[in-house]
Design the sequence.
């Protein structure tokens, strides 16, 4: 009899499930609650994702706008530098046409019979040299290193390079085109850190009193040049011809130059050698 009474109770429990509800009813209830729950979550999450996406898009747009602005400013600055160089070239040409004595580079005069006219020519020559120097220094302060080399080339081509004092001008980071000839270059008392003058002819050039730290003269011909009182720390002289060079009182501390090269120099009196010692003669 116990088994007979227990059978209907178990069937009733299985059919009615838990808490007097069938499993099907519980599944229906869960499904009914789950859909609104998912919809509610999506209602909150999707706008947040869209907001984050919009913010990222705005940030990307701002970044692109800033980059475009920087590129426009860089292009504008480049155009301004080119305009400065073009203006200097135009002014230099105009001045040389007006004063032929400057472009000749010698002491001849168009009217050599009149001493008073000679004095006027001298005064004109001095004035025009001063004007060119002023314009050159003004341009050099605003030009980038590549255009500074172009300005130097303009002075060389015009024939006035040895008449113009460029002292205190800054040529740092400038790179001279390899294979060029810059013989008798006048770089007296200039600043030219980390300058590259590689595989270039600099015969009889003058770099005295200049700051040339970190510069490279690799493979160049610097023979018979003057580096007196120049700061030449950490400079590179590999495969460089330094025969008959004046290194008087220069600072070669940390320079890449061999003792064999230094023996070919004209004078090392008072120079600080690469090892830190001071040359006596």
Sequence:
């Amino acid at each position: 009899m116990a088994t007979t009474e227990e059978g209907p109770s178990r069937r009733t429990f299985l059919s009615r499930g838990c808490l007097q509800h069938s499993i099907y009813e519980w599944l229906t209830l869960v499904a009914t609650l789950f859909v609104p729950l998912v919809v509610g979550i999506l209602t909150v999450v999707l706008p947040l994702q869209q907001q984050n996406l919009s913010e990222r898009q705005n940030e990307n747009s701002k970044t692109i706008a800033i980059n475009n602005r920087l590129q426009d400013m860089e292009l504008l600055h480049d155009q301004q530098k080119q305009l400065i160089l073009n203006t200097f070239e135009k002014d230099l040409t105009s001045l040389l046409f007006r004063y032929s004595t400057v472009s000749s580079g010698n002491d001849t005069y168009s009217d050599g019979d009149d001493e008073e006219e000679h004095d006027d020519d001298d005064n004109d020559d001095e004035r025009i040299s001063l004007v060119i120097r002023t314009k050159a220094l003004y341009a050099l302060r605003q030009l980038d290193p590549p255009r500074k080399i172009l300005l130097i080339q303009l002075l060389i081509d015009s024939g006035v390079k040895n008449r113009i004092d460029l002292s205190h001008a800054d040529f740092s980071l400038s790179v001279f085109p390899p294979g060029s000839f810059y013989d008798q270059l006048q770089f007296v008392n200039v600043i030219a850190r980390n300058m590259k003058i590689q595989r270039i002819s600099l015969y009889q050039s003058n770099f005295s009193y200049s700051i040339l730290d970190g510069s490279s003269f690799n493979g160049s011909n610097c023979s018979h040049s003057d580096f007196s009182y120049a700061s030449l720390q950490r400079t590179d002289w590999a495969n460089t011809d330094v025969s008959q060079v004046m290194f008087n009182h220069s600072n070669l501390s940390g320079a890449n130059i061999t003792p064999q090269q230094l023996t070919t120099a004209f004078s090392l009196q008072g120079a600080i050698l690469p090892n830190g010692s001071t040359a006596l003669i």
Notes: The CA atoms of residues 66 and 72 lie 10 Å apart. The chain is about 50% helix and 0% strand. Helices lie at 2-16, 23-98, 100-104, 115-140, 145-158, 259-263. Residues 167-281 form a domain with the Pectate Lyase C-like fold (CATH 2.160.20.80).
